[in-house]
Amino acid sequence: MAPSNVEHLLRDLAPQVLGAVARRHEDFAAAEDAVQEALIAAAEQWPEQGIPANPRGWLYHVAVRRLTDHIRSEISRRRREDTVASEVWAEWAFVPPPEGEVDVQQDDTLVLLFMCCHPALTPSSSIALTLRAVGGLTTAEIARAFLVPEATMAQRISRAKQSIRESGIPFRMPTDEERAERLSAVLHILYLIFNEGYASSGGADLVRTDLSNEAIRLTRMLHTLLPDDGEVAGLLALMVLTDARRAARTGPSGELIPLDEQDRSLWDQRLIAEGVALISDTLSKGSIGVYQLQAAIAAVHDEAARSEDTDWPQILALYDVLRGLQDNPMIALNHAIAAAMVHGPPTGLELLEALDGDPRIRGHYRLDAVRAHLHEMAGDHDRALAHYRAAATRTTSIPERNYLTTKAARLRERYRPPDAAERER
Amino acid sequence: MRYMLMMHAPRGTGDYQVSEWSPADLKAHIEFMHRLNKDLAASGEMVSGEGLAGPGEAKLVRAGKNGVPMTDGPFPEAKEFLAGFWIVDVEHADRAYAIAARISAAPGPGGTPLNMPVEVRQVMSAPPTDG
Fold first, then answer.
1. What is the DSSP string of A297-308?
2. What residue ranges of chain A have pLDDT lower than 70?
3. CA of B52 to nearest chain A CA: how many angstroms apart?
4. Phi, psi of B121 (to 5 degrees)
5. CB A223 within 8 A of CB A233
6. pLDDT over 70 for what percent of chain A?
7. Between chains, do B23 and A406 touch, taking CB under 8 Å as contact?
8. In whole angstroms, what is the distance from residue B31 CA to residue B33 CA?
9. Chain A positions in Cβ-Cβ contact with residue B20 (cut-off 8 Å)
């Protein structure tokens, strides 16, 4: 079997096996290490020796054996230090592993996700831990995706596991009261992983493909586990509808191409169809939520064959609802753009003024970028130029900076007499 | 041997001289940098490289009383600023100088090489093995 097929199988099995091991052994951190070792052993052996008849059982037993070895050596270490403590450990260390098929519970993966995205962890810890424990990625792979050294990522993961241990988070489903809040934490982390891949905030590469793909894979898995949850479906729809435009989003030198200038023939129609079907289905059930609304907006964009065919009144109506649901300055910013497209730039600019007083977005380059865009639409080129420049100075993304600087340069070239431009040199 | 190449860009009248360039000149410059990074990655010499945010936000920090950060800056009078750096792994210093010269000659207005100063510093390595 090809190594890539083995890899896919292993990544699918990883959360199931970890769930089964973590349910039996209370030490999540040790269980996670043991499963990771089993996965590495399988990745080395299976491509050459073939996939065992019961791959899940194989992984489970290898992991339990590793865990037992680890506990045995821990016991002998402790026995030297403290005889009493070792007896407590011994009690569950030598429970014989079950024979045959592993007791896989559907909810294990879900419990794992809830655990890795626990609000007690920082977002960066949750992201790393989710990718490793649920995604089955190695520390080296995660480090590469985040452009940090492997030792840095290993430390981040180990601290995340330490936090889980210290806060005593049990391996079980959240209670009914906690559930909505905990699920929204999970969705937020998956969304952050997707965004990290799609619009990486640092570095020169605009799209770190692997992280977007991984976020989609995990959200798809979550959607299989919770098919009736509107927001899970909404997030999945939002991801695929956004990802559908990936090929059109950057040019040959990595430059950013905005939505209205993209070559729409490069959009992935299969993903668009999937996203539209997902979002139509959940909206038809009367469900509503921030991810579903954002997905609905993405769907309206994706369904326009040309930029000028975009149904802006529809987008504006969706942003109106979204704004009522969530107080978020980025949403307010996009709402202002939609309002400008429907009612003209002065309406949009007026809405932006309200945002100047919001400390969450004041001084953010996106506020300048949108203002520049609306002034350009209104034909006020001097103001547009000033705001494009301010936005270029403030952004921390090189492709964004290149894009904004180029926008300013084009404006200057178009609207200034050539001799004036010549004198500036 | 690893070297750090630090590119000092001209500041111009504002935060960036580049904000005065024509679209075509900008495009040529961006493509030049893109090509350079691709070549360094393909030759296996690139260890890392980063572009830095504008000098308008740059601060100098010193510890004050009880370690409280004391910030100073930004410094609008500076003519040049550190715009980005590369760490390359090469066989000889000469190769690091050659890469630095290529960076220095990045195209500016009208395609004329900028001839920016690029500081080349060797990165310290592990102690030699015994025996």
1. HHHHHHT-SSGG
2. 1-3, 81-104, 106, 199-209, 416-425
3. 8
4. -130, 135
5. yes
6. 88
7. yes
8. 5
9. 424-425
* Distance linking the first and last C-alpha atoms of chain B: 21
Residues 6+ apart with CB under 8 A from A136: A10, A11, A12, A13, A14, A15, A39
Tokens 């039996």 belong to residue: A24
Sign of CA dihedral A24, A29, A32, A33: negative
What is the token pair recorded at A352?
A: 């932006």
Residue B53's pLDDT is what? 84
B20, B26, B56: residue with CB nearest A393: B56
Number of A–B residue contacts, CB under 8 Å: 50
Q: What is the pTM of this model?
A: 0.83
**Alpha carbons A205 and A146: distance in angstroms, whole number:** 11
Question: Residue B9 has which token pair?
Answer: 């860009």
The residue assigned the tokens 């004329």 is: B112
CB A300 within 8 A of CB A316: no
Dihedral angle sign, alpha carbons of residues A76, A77, A81, A86: negative
Sign (positive or negative) of CA dihedral A336, A341, A343, A349: positive
Residue with structure tokens 């692997």?
Answer: A210
CA dihedral A89, A95, A98, A103 (to 10 degrees): -40
What gap in Å lies between CA A71 and CA A66, rounded to an integer?
A: 9
Residue A79: half-sphere exposure toward Cβ, Cα within 13 Å: 9
Strands B60-63 and B46-51: unpaired
Mutation target to probe the B interface, by most B beta carbons within 10 A, among A144, A146, A402, A412 is A402
> Does B19 contact A392 at a Cβ distance shorter than 8 Å?
yes
Contact assignment for B26 to A413 by CB distance below 8 Å: no
Q: Give CA–CA dist B75/A389, Å, rounded.
A: 19
Interface of A with B in 342-401 (CB under 8 A): 389, 392-396, 398
pLDDT for res A205: 52
Q: State the smallest CA–CA distance between residue A359 and chain B in angstroms.
A: 18
Interacting residues of A303 by C-beta distance below 8 A, sequence separation 6+: A272, A276, A311
| Nearest chain A residue (CA) to B35 | A253
Query: What ipTM was estimated for this complex?
Result: 0.82
Q: Give the C-alpha separation, B4 to B103, whole Å.
A: 13
Tokens of A358: 């919001």
Kindly list the residues from chain A whose CB atom is less than 8 angstroms away from the CB atom of residue B40.
Answer: none
Residue B11 to residue A392: CA distance in whole angstroms: 14
